[in-house]
Amino acid sequence: MTIKRILVPLPDSISHDREIEVAMSTAKTLGAHVEALFIKEPLPPRGNRMEVGSRATMVGADLMRAQQEATERREQRAQDARDQFIEACRVNGIRFLQEAATAESPPTASWAETEGAPGPIVASRAPAFDLVIASSASVAEPLKEIAESALLQTGRPVLLAPARMRQDLSGKIMIAWDESPECWHAVSAALPFMERAKTVEVLSIDKDSGNHHRSSQEHVLAYLRCHGINASARIASPKTRTIGEGILAAAGEEEAGLVVMGAYSHSRLREMLLGGPTRHVLNSAAATPVLMAH
User: Fold this and answer.
1) Which residues, other chains included, contact 103 with Cβ-Cβ below 8 Å and sequence gap of 6+?
2) Shortest CA distance to 279 belongs to which of 260, 262, 254, 259?
3) The CATH classification of domain 5-43+76-136, taken from the options 2.40.160.20, 3.50.50.60, 1.20.120.1200, 3.40.50.620
4) Residue 242 or residue 250, greater confidence
5) What angle do CA 22, 28, 34 make, to 5 degrees?
6) Which residue, of 2, 25, 252, 291, has the fewest CB within 10 Å?
7) 86 Ramachandran zone, left/alpha/beta (phi>0; psi -120 to 50)
8) Is 150 helix (H, G, I), strand (E, B) or coil?
């Protein structure tokens, strides 16, 4: 798999330093094009109260003025975010393309704007991209909702941005291995990162340290070797109450630059019924970037 088109949704209800920083780093690391999609909140509906005489005129004028002020504030937020994104491109040496330009000689970047609910918008736009950048709830709740929509409705991998970048994405990569189809998908999606990584480790967290994990680790190590990636593997006993906590704790202890893991759900009809480790990481990952795939 190659990653050449990256979508970074920017809801206008939050600041965007985290996602933009990760988007710039990813575009430079992979030589990719990144599109920033600023998602404007719908304006409040115009009032339709009926009153008589001068009072009606005053209420109507107040409503129009409030609507105009809301529109101006929203447009200013969009302009500020665009200026921030363009400045980040300049600082990182990434060429910013105008709307009509084509993405040649990446890393490059472009800007787009739309209006509506972030989840459905990203679900409809993500299939045209190789990777979506979002975040966990501990960093920004709207970005967690975007991550869930992208993972469960589009099948596109999602990169969760940390609160602050501490390590290089091409440093150490830790695969949170559980031999599920979702984890295999995440490993395949992360190949472009692993091909550039300094080290790759396959980590299984298991209180029994059973041989079945060692066997499946051998399969993924063989898969990685075929792609020119030499990785190590180990099985660790959990030091925390849950697997999700163990994954994030191990990433912190080992100063991983990126965690790779599968995202699974117990029911496709109930998207909120996510598996325990998936749910914990989507709620709590804040220190380390996490690439997830479903």
Assistant:
1) 5, 33, 97, 110
2) 262
3) 3.40.50.620
4) 250
5) 65
6) 2
7) alpha
8) helix
Instruction: Give dist(CA 9, CA 152) in Å, integer.
Output: 16
In this structure, whether the domain defined by 166-293 belongs to CATH 3.40.50.620 is answered with yes
Run of H or E including 215:
helix 211-226
Residue length, the chain? 294
Q: Which sequence spans correspond to the domains of the chain?
A: 5-43+76-136, 166-293
| CA trace torsion 131, 128, 115, 39 (10° rounding) | 20
Distance CA 125, CA 262 (A): 22
Residue carrying the six token digits 């180990």: 234
Torsion angle, alpha carbons of 113, 114, 116, 122, to 10:
-80
> CA-CA distance, 256 to 237, in Å (whole number)?
18
- What amino acid is encoded at 103 in this protein? A
> Dihedral (C-alpha) 149, 152, 158, 162: value to the nearest 10 degrees?
60
Could you give the CA distance from residue 149 to residue 146 in angstroms, rounded to a whole number? 5
pTM listed for this prediction = 0.88
